Amino acid sequence: MGIPSELRDAWVNKRNSYTSMMAASPNEKKIIDSDNSIREAVPEGFKAAAIYGIVAAVPTVIACRVIPWAKVNLNHTAQALIISTASIAGFFIATDQYILENARGNTIGKHNKTI
Asked: Of residues 88 and 31, which shows the higher confidence score?
């Protein structure tokens, strides 16, 4: 399936010829810089989130296994759900925080905007 290579190449070449005749937008560089800053922030945010997820899961595992009430009243499924909930919450909070912080810092620094 898919597009034949000759048709695809003709379509790409035609599209490139049209873009060369268009005038560049004054905001185009800002948009590209914003996209690049977000692309740079996402992998770093993922790394930080993985660490935060583990850091949030370890005390929760210990609490579920050591606290007498949790040992008696929670079966293994409930303990696993509590642990995974804490881990996922730490993961998403860290990812969101890091990506927004990095993207905001890059955008403010690159566009000379004040806070």
From this structure: 88
